[in-house]
Amino acid sequence: MAFDGLVMAAVREDLNKTIIGGRIEKIYQPLAKEIILVIHKNRTKYRLLISADPGKARIHFTKTTRENPLTPPLFCMVLRKHLEGGKITGIDQPGLERILNIRVEAIDELGIPAEKILICEVMGKHSNIILVNPTTNIVLDGITRYSYATSRHREILPGRQYIPPPESEKQDPSLVTEDQFRSELWDLSHDLPIEKILLNSFDGFSPQTCREIAIRAGLEPGTGSQYLGEIELTQLWRVFKSIQEQLRSGEFQPVVCFFDDIPAAFSAISLTYYSEASCKPGSISEVIDEFYSVKERLEQFKQETANLMKTVQNEIKKARKKHSIHASNLEKADDAEKLKIFGELITANIFRIPERAKTVELENYYDPEGKTVLIPLDPRFSAAENAQLYFKRYSKSRQAGTIARNYLQETRAELDYLESVVTSAEQAENITQLEEIRSELIKEGYIKPEKTGFSRNAKKHEPQVSKPEPMKLNTKEGFEILVGRNNRQNDYLTMKLAQPNDLWLHVKDIPGSHIIIRNPLAGEIPDNVIRKAAEIAAYYSQARESSKAPVDYTLRKNVRKPKGAKPGMVIYDNQKTIIAEPKKQSVH
Hints:
This protein has helices spanning 5-18, 74-83, 178-187, 194-201, 207-216, 230-249, 284-333, 336-348, 383-427, 431-443, 487-497, 527-539, and strands at residues 23-31, 34-41, 44-51, 58-61, 87-92, 99-107, 113-121, 128-133, 138-142, 255-259, 262-267, 279-281, 359-363, 372-376, 450-451, 460-461, 471-474, 480-483, 503-507, 515-517, 549-555, 559-560, 571-572, 576-580. By secondary structure, it is of the alpha+beta class. Among the domains are: 5-142, ibrinogen binding protein from staphylococcus aureus fold, CATH 2.30.310.10; 329-466, no CATH class; 471-580, no CATH class.
């Protein structure tokens, strides 16, 4: 991506054709470094996004909506005071700088028309949005304030003189002649690649644009200037001139390009070094908006996944700790039989045990070899009382063992459930699927729900998640295969959507998706269809990275959900097992 001078020129043309004469109805500041101007013109409303975020600085029309803070930030209030209701009278760009000046005529506090300039500086970490009074050239405010302590060049503070960023000493490419172009390429160091020479010589060009010029001219990226001859210079000028003509006419060819569905670049000119299929044309605002919208969705998806995974991994850690404690308690309880034997041996030899004895050595009738056993005694009690003490301890240990065994089963089931959530989160492909998982975790008590308000009757609520929609695939044989992508979908698919004679599949003994082969006529399902469904079951499971995985299948009527079972947890019988290779693209 590159928001260079060419892109800013294309944005300038877009805005000039669209909103000159429009009025600013509303101003919002949804993020710390981002404002939205709602502009009305000719019965149409436009949302102009201006961002000074160092990594996302830009200006363009947007269709994206954001939640605004309840209390507007100070900068937003300053803009509302000076610009709301104002008429946009002009938009200009100094040369090919990444600066756009939006001139607005509004009524001041005295009811007198006054002009203000909203200056948008798109300059990486130095980006800013500044409101200036052009009559006095005084800064009214900036979205990022700083003094000379931060920048030796200028201060951006209310009441200070506005000083523009340092001017570029490069040439304006729209004014360059062929002789000047050739001279620049010949006079510079022959040790530099062509892209670097173009970047250092001409204003408004980003490395991406320079690379595009070299490639269009038939040169390999990184070609040194010492390899330029008359043919190469002619080819470079031809490409340079085509871009120059776009600059002069204002007719650009904006594109946004993707690599494996991930935004890779946007530009005011076509990018030939991306495949044609991966690039999408549009207006300059459309391509920038799509680039950042998709990028933000991917970032949000990545962050939501990380948050869910962190929550679930913490719960797994707690469950494993509980599992270890219960296992230890069960191990101790398994030694309880020894306490019973001690009590019985004391009872059988009660008259042979002297009073106040601390230990007694007795023959162990339960030992096949008839060995003796040394039994500790409490000298404060009689032999009969010591026997009763051992019986009581035995009874308590048995009870503790039963409890530990039950807890151990519950904790094991919880671990299995949490592992299934991890698999679902790892394999989720969109925000909707993550919202379903989050809703499930709220319902199960692993995430605290948000509150609706502060009234006495305010109730905790779960995110409003739409009806589960399992993935649907059709085989060339005419069968429909349904895939649950998380536990919520699994429960809906298996327990509500599937019919008794549908075929149910699940990878054996590990977390994974529930798979249903619809069988409305209750006929025979071909083996190759079952195999395809098994391959899908293996792919959408914890065995995805394995070479092969066992998959159980049975009729849906043989699948049951135990009372109180966690989401997605079922039991089944009368199953058969098939060994399948995990495959995603296994149906048509």
